[in-house]
Amino acid sequence: MASQERPVDPHDIADLHGALDELRDEIRLRFPAEPAVRSRGGASELEALLAAVRRRIGTLGMVERSGAIDEFGLDEDVLRRVRPLLDALVDRYWRLHLVGREYVPERGPCLLVANHSGVLPFDGLVLSHAIEREHPHRERPRFLVADWLMSLPFAHATLAQLGGVRACRENAERLLASKRMLIAFPEGGKGATKVFRERYRLQRFGRGGVVRLALEMGAPLLPVGIVGAEEAHPLLAKLTVAARPLGLPFLPLTPTFPLLGPLGLLPLPSQWVIRIGEPISLEPYDARSASDELLVAELNEQVRTRVGSLVDAALRDRDSVWSVG
Amino acid sequence: MSEPDVVGITGLRTTVGQRLVERLLARGDGLRVVGFDLRRPSRMDERVVFHPIDLAEPTAGSRLAEAFRKERVDVVVHAAFRTDPTPDLDADHELETIGSLHVMNACAAADVQRMVFASSTMLYGPWPDNPNFLSEAHPLRGHPAAHSVNDRVEAEMLLADWSIRHPKTEVTVLRSGWMLGGRHEDRMTRYLSLPVVPKLLGYDPLMQLVHHDDCLRVFERATVESHPGVYNVVGRGVLPLSSLLRLAGKRILSLPAPLLYRMTYFPSQRQTGDAPDGFYAYLRHLWVADGTRGWAEFGEPDYTTKEAWMSFISNRRMRRYR
After folding, report:
1. Does the bond joining A258 to the residue before it have cis omega, within 30 degrees of 0?
2. Has residue A165 been placed in a domain?
3. Pairing with A182, which of A74, A260, B167, B203 sits 20 to 30 Å away (CA)?
4. Looking at A21, A46, A68, which one is the last position of a domain?
């Protein structure tokens, strides 16, 4: 990776590609028609050689900036830059206590199912960051983000760079099929936007989508309880009328927002505990079971109970909301 | 079906039409090409038999059928779609939707064995609730402000319906991504050639490109071989719009959506009938297609999104476009 030391000018690469294009056009001009003539003149070999050279140059170009962006928009360079900030946020600001890291598999697809809270998807970001630090050799887990949030200006670009993926079946299947870790919040909007007095009360787990997904993709299900995100953004009330002209489902009313303006979007320094539970065994079942609605509903409720007990355990781990250490 | 002897191409003057003719003739296997367009192309190989035709005419169907029969056309490639919408919404509709219907009817009447339909991944439409990769089975939703796209959605719907009623004609639909390369010009390439490129503030969708060589290779194979079905024809990889522009050394002007939508300013200085949001919507939300099916059927593309882009900008630089 010599190019790491001396950054490649993308324009040099562009010019090389242009020169290759010209060469290829030249070959095509000189050996136009018959395949027999082409093979005797070595035109096919020349073209194959050019294609090989092009591929080599292509990978060379990938070293520089925009090459570090994956198919879902995760940007390694942005991550590298914000990693110190995320570390500080997780360790110092929220004093995260992580339990059950040993349950995260060393390889293969994995579906982490967690409770959801806090309007902004800090819970997904923190969980994926915490797991990535524990398993540096594994690719950063992706977290699913609600539709409406992903369609807001800035949100999509920013969240995608940090590993957020719009929550939909196709995306989830693609991620698990490529053996990646995926964080899902089956409570969805119901969980993320519940008011403060209902904190840590689990909502309905959708319609069993996570269970069906795990069955179909053959991915282990890991229940996760996240505590702290509720207090980071305590939602006192939802202002629906004021939100209408902005095209938002509601405007959150927190102790600091909209009182302090955009500054109020900053989360409060609650103490966070994340408990990852033992994998839920789906062993006796296979992909065909995914169409058994009653079984899916039953398993879904089991997952919900497990997440619920992990949340309760995590709440007991904490002396108080603002405790240090 | 065996190898075709005669290929009919509608839209001879479009990039797909032009380049496909070149490729088919370069095969050197005695394939005959019959071309249809409004006017004769300025440069055309003398081996091509040209028939002038206006697809928007009410009798275009029977005239096409007659020509197909006379020339014994085996395969029809329908590529007569505008690269840019015009201010005349009705004329666009007549060409893109009704014109396609004429071509289908002519194929049925002349017992054409195979039809290759040039479509676009733009037909899926840019929507915030699109999955990151749109498969061929995803519904074609177009966009309310992009009338030309909606006309083509309608044409493809008609085709799906038509192919059920005419099972004897094999249909291949090629939905190509945003195509770059060579002399191809459309409003996307003109937009990208602006010295300062306006962009929607707060939106930076992942873009997907396909090099025209890869695209035309697929068209060529779909013409001479049997590949019935619908395929996305796209390059591997995606890049955010801002990265594309930065790689080209462009200055980016980020404007709030309402402001940009109201600017009916276009690089060609030419009024287009599309409301600008019909265009900018494609620079706002995702409309990336899943190319897996097409790659499995037609082989790996030579250019990734990024390489297609690099090749494009270097071409522009050599022609001092920047």
Report:
1. yes
2. yes
3. B203
4. A68
CA–CA gap between residue A73 and residue B99 (Å, rounded):
39
Instruction: Read off the pLDDT of residues A152-171 as tens digits, 9 standing for 90 and up.
Output: 888 888 999 999 999 999 99
Q: A16, A59, A71, A75: best mutation site toward chain B, by most B Cβ within 10 Å?
A: A71
Q: Return the CATH number at A117.
A: 3.40.1130.10
How far apart are alpha carbons B27 and A111 in whole angstroms? 50
Q: Could you list the residue range(s) of the whole structural domain that residue A92 is in?
A: 76-233+268-317
Cα of A81 to nearest chain B Cα, Å = 17
Range scoring the smallest mean pLDDT among A122-126, B83-87, B155-159? B83-87
| CA torsion, ordered A266, A270, A276, A277, to nearest 10 deg | -130
Say yes or no: B88 contacts chain A, CB-CB below 8 A.
no
Q: How far apart are CA A189 and CA B16, in angstroms?
A: 46
Confidence of residue A3 (pLDDT cuts 50, 70, 90): very low
Burial (0-12, 13-18, 19+ Cβ within 10 Å), A48: exposed
Residue-level pLDDT at B3: 83
A58 found inside a domain: yes
Amino acid at residue number B311: S
Q: For chain B, which domains are there?
A: 6-182+210-235+290-295 (3.40.50.720)
Residues of A in contact with B285 (CB under 8 A): 151
Contact A157 B203 (CB under 8 A): yes
Question: Which residue among A73, A151, A169 sits closest to B128, beta carbon to beta carbon?
Answer: A151
Closest residue on chain B to A170 (Cα): B131
User: Any bridge partners for residue A144, and if so which?
Assistant: A165
